[in-house]
Amino acid sequence: MTAPASVWQLVELARHQDRPYSLDYITRLAPDFVELHGDRLGGDDQALIAGVGTWHGMTTMFFGQQKGRNLADRVARHFGMMHPEGYRKAMRLAKQAAKFNFPIISLIDTPGAYPGASAEDRGIAAAIATAIMEWFRVPVPVVAAVIGEGGSGGALGMAVADRVLMLENAIYSVASPESAASIVWRDSNRKMEAAEQLQITSKDLLAMGVIEDIVPEPAGGAQTDHDAAAQMLDAALRKHMEPLLAMRSAELLQHRYDRFRYIDSLIRAEPDFGPKVESRL
Amino acid sequence: MALARKRVEEVPAVGDRLPDIGLPTNCPGCGVGLELEEIRRQVYVCSCGHHFPMRAEAWIKLMADQGTWEERWADVRPHDLLLWKNPKPYQATIDEARAEGLNEAVRTGRCRLAGREIWLAAFDFRFVGGTLSIVAGERLTRGMEQAASSGLPYVLVAASGGARMQEGVLALMQMAKINGAVGRMHDSGVPYFSILTDPTYGGTAASLALMADINIAEPGAAIGFSGPRVIKQATYEDLPPGFQKADYQLAHGQVDMVIPRTEIRRRLAHLVELYK
Fold first, then answer.
1. What is the DSSP annotation of B25-55?
2. How far A208 CA sits from the closest chain B CA (Å)?
3. ipTM entry
4. Are A204 and A11 contacting, i.e. CB atoms less than 8 angstroms apart?
5. How far is the C-alpha of B11 from the C-alpha of B261, rounded, in Å?
6. Candidates A108, A273, A276, partner chain B, best to mutate (most B CBs within 10 A)
7. How far is the C-alpha of A111 from the C-alpha of A80, rounded, in Å?
8. What average pLDDT does this structure show over B207-227?
9. Model confidence at A198, in pLDDT bands (50, 70, 90)?
10. Do B58 and B157 contact (CB within 8 A), yes or no?
11. How far does CA B217 lie from the centroid of its chain?
């Protein structure tokens, strides 16, 4: 495909309403997928799909943040923005995956966690924090892939994995460009400039060492051909899952800890601590 | 270590050595004109109960027994890794803060509290809104790893707007880096106490700040993930009175207790003793 002219065009592509969503991928990766519901604490968050299916001969636990396809679906799924119940459902089923030694695939596609009183009152900050901490204790392989939008802590809460991949036209950011603009300019209309400065493209994240690989998309973007996009994702997930399956649990957990412990250490010379990334602007 | 437990110092004695924190002329809580010396002796709490935000330096002075503070990793410095330009170059932000004598959004080190050794980390809201950055994450993580291996209690004083935009996704990754260490600290049996001050939001709230064995809020402190402005913009909701404030979070199960700053030293020393 021809490269998008600006980072903002890439943001629009990452949010394209015809782009495959998590369920579109999961049902192709594992046609016998069975969805599982509920956090066993009082709720079921439809912004997160969870369940099991057969993937390359292995029962696999799938998670996927799910935006809605039509208005009613979007409203029911809060546009892919998770509530505390979603992270608690994920933790319940991650423990189940550990019990049965199922590998885990987590697909990321969210603008961020739900920014409303309902989520706050039920402890969204603690729910995300707990999930982030607990992922380091899940003794089975975890591969995450950002398929569209990787927005803020809401995305990270489902992306503490052994390998993190990004689709070519996906974005992954500390905050949505709108939120970042609202924070630094007090004006969300500066979203395009914010998007450029934040360095949120798959190439940026690969250069920073935050992701392991970029998953190619069909010409024109994943929205043009869901089947082809799913095949490309399948190949990348398989490539990255394979070596993890051979690792012992202790080794896996140490590797996961170190992956994040030194994620900012491309250049570790003090006192100027931190990586240096060449500007792509 | 066979050290006799010291009595906890009284508040006026501790207040006397707190630095000037640049108070307004009138209290935003009750409108009364402020006497700096008097309010300092009350550890920057107005008699109406309003808690003035304290900088990291003041928190360290408040919590550490006199002469026991040993700061660590103060030489780990931020870097403008994204070459951030607008509306203000990140390098200029860093340089200005340093010129004001600020050393990043988190300072950490070892000290004693009522004679007992602890690790202490304090956020400084004046450094880019106390935002979680690579340096903040590194200092916090190293301290937690050392607390876990040395068996010392870990005390956090949080005050943060969330993750730092100018460090992009690497600021976000600090949440995972830190919570990995929080998990190890819990596994090692080390007690972790978090003092949540006004404000504690975003990536800081959604990583280490609420993951302590005991979450302690300061009276009136706003604590949450998304702030009221963001929530109103996104959902047009009318928020209830006191939304996200300390008492509200106590009622919603997010904190164990609300403790006035005038009592925090004594109460924390007691908790450290109970969890020894």
1. SB-TTT-PBP-HHHHHHTTTB-TTSPBPP--
2. 8
3. 0.96
4. no
5. 9
6. A273
7. 7
8. 98
9. very high
10. no
11. 10
- Predicted local confidence at residue A280, as pLDDT: 39
Burial class (CB in 10 A: 0-12, 13-18, 19+), B235: middle
- The 10 Å Cβ neighbour count of residue A228 is 14
| Residue range A208-260, pLDDT digits in tens | 889 999 999 999 999 999 999 999 999 999 999 999 999 999 999 999 999 99
Q: Check: CB of residue A41 under 8 Å from CB of residue A88.
A: yes
Residue numbers of A between 233 and 262 with CB closer than 8 Å to B = 256-257, 260-261
Percent pLDDT > 90 in chain B is: 83
* Residues forming beta bridges with residue A165, ordered by sequence position: A145, A213
Are B179 and A157 an interchain contact pair (Cβ–Cβ within 8 Å)?
Answer: no
Q: Are residues A111 and A78 in contact, defined by beta-carbon separation less than 8 angstroms?
A: no
Taking only the tens place, the pLDDT of each residue in A5-39 is: 689 999 999 999 999 999 999 999 999 999 999 99
Chosen for mutation from B77, B98, B169, B192 (greatest number of chain A CBs closer than 10 Å) is: B169
